[in-house]
Write a structure and sequence with these properties.
There is one protein chain. With about 450 residues, the protein is an alpha/beta fold. It has a domain at about 175-415: TIM Barrel. It is about 45% helix and about 10% strand. The chain contains 18 helices and twelve strands. Strand 6, helix 12 (about 255-265) and strand 7 (about 270-275) form a beta-alpha-beta unit. The longest helix is centred in the first third of the chain and has 21 residues, at about 110-130. It is globular, with a radius of gyration of 21 Å. The structure holds magnesium ion (MG).
């Protein structure tokens, strides 16, 4: 049977993470992790399409407004029709010329298109009773390629090449799936590394992470070189010379500053420098990559779309592609990103954390592991241990590896009681918080 999308609703859900300085980095001093949350309703109360766009607080005001405009475009569709035409729907969501003017293919409306597409994929997976990674991994190469908008990337990745990449892996899919179910995909952690933490808290959490089986830890950096050297010296003393350490500047530097700064940290043998400068500065990233080698460059959590990734790859500007589940236009565009990375033999090392990003992006890494590039030791998925308890199936990391989720859907389905408590400003948490502190938020 098929279902009809009867209506859609967006919720503004905010968590008060700024109180603990969780998520603090050189650019973002006091984030309140938030979800611009979308739910698509069908005739069955048990079958909804759920997704979210991650923001760090007041951005929700704008993000929700954009989602509310775009979500109406899928109301009235049947699930069968939407599934058969998902590539066309993705193109249509980006093609409204009056809204496209505010992009193009980037920013708030692009992320809103992602919310709608991710909610549709969540709905498709729930309807079939499978987790999203499994749904994607069982699609034919032709179905996957049909989901992609090749406009602006066909000069480096044609549909025919994408088909070849996917077809080459078809015979390995079942073995890759068995391996995934046994071992999961490797994770690294950023939990110890927030800039607002004291050195003691950072080292305690570092010890905990090593004991938990993580093999790579990432630390925020970029506020002062003295702080970075002091923190990294202590971390190296704690973990020893061979443990993998990455750093993340969250875009604070100019290109020249990035080069000088990272070169002053070479003795710490860093696995990568993440987001050294503005995410749109592809040429700048290419120069940084060349001049800070052997330290490698990673970026992508704010890469606006597939063509930024295309250019980063064309110019050898990145050694790791950090896709994000909610930055681009949903599952569709991330399939394109994963295939672009495969063509250039660059590992996809997804960005996560925030709220719900671990739950959502793990499905894309697992699809990559089963159906695109297979299992290899260059893939490692970010994990941050905050706010998982709000989801129907919290991301599960055991011995440093994400375990394959089993629940049907795309992972972003938040518990109703969490939505009710943290919906802004009418949820029970915010009513008491705002009455105590006035409306300063
Ligand atoms: Mg980052």
């Amino acid at each position: 049977m098929t279902y009809t999308i009867l209506r859609a609703e967006a919720f503004d859900v905010r968590f008060p993470t700024s109180k603990m300085l969780d998520g603090s980095d050189a650019m973002n001093a006091d984030p309140d992790y938030s979800a611009a949350y979308l739910r698509l309703f069908t005739e069955s109360s048990a079958l909804t399409g759920d997704s979210l766009v991650f923001t760090i607080g007041r951005g929700n005001d704008v993000q929700i407004a954009a989602i509310e405009i775009l979500m109406e475009k899928v109301v009235g569709l049947t699930t069968d029709d939407a599934f058969a035409r998902i590539g066309d729907i993705a193109r249509e969501l980006s093609a409204d010329s009056q809204l496209r003017w505010l992009g193009t293919d980037k920013g708030v409306f692009h992320m809103a298109a992602g919310a709608v597409l991710n909610a549709l994929w969540d709905l498709f997976a729930k309807e079939r009773g499978v987790p999203l990674w499994k749904l994607l991994s069982d699609l034919t190469p032709e179905q996957l390629v049909d989901a992609i908008d090749f406009r602006y990337i066909a000069d480096v990745l044609t549909p025919e090449e994408a088909l070849q990449i996917l077809r080459a892996r078809v015979s390995e899919r079942s073995a890759n799936e068995a391996l995934l179910l046994r071992d999961g995909v490797r994770a690294y952690t950023t939990t110890p590394g927030w800039l607002g933490y004291t050195d003691e808290k950072m080292l305690d959490l570092t010890r905990e992470a090593v004991a938990d089986g993580f093999t790579l830890i990432k630390y925020k950096c970029g506020k002062s070189i003295e702080d970075d050297r002091r923190r990294l010296t202590k971390v190296r003393a704690e973990v020893g010379p061979d443990f993998k350490i990455a750093i993340d500047a969250n875009q604070v530097w100019n290109v020249d500053t990035a080069i000088a700064w990272v070169n002053q940290l070479q003795e710490f043998k860093l696995e990568w420098i993440e987001e050294p400068t503005h995410p749109d500065d592809v040429v700048g990233h290419a120069r940084i990559a060349k001049e800070v080698a052997p330290t490698r460059v990673a970026t992508g959590e704010m890469a606006a779309n597939r063509l930024v990734f295309k250019q980063l790859l064309q110019l050898n500007a990145i050694s790791f592609m950090q896709i994000d589940a909610t930055r681009v236009a949903g599952v569709n565009e991330n399939i394109a990103n994963i295939l672009l990375a495969a063509k250039f033999n660059i590992p996809v090392v997804p960005h996560a954390g925030g709220i719900g990003l671990c739950e959502m992006v793990q499905h894309l890494a697992m699809f990559d592991a089963v159906a695109v590039t297979g299992h290899h030791d260059r893939r490692i998925v970010e994990y941050v241990d905050h706010l998982h308890e709000h989801f129907l199936e919290p991301a599960r990391v055991v011995a440093g590896a994400y375990q394959a989720p089993a629940l049907p859907g795309g992972g972003g389905h938040m518990k109703d009681e969490s939505i009710q408590k943290y919906i802004y400003p009418s949820g029970s948490y915010w009513i008491s918080e705002l009455s105590m502190n006035g409306a300063k938020r």
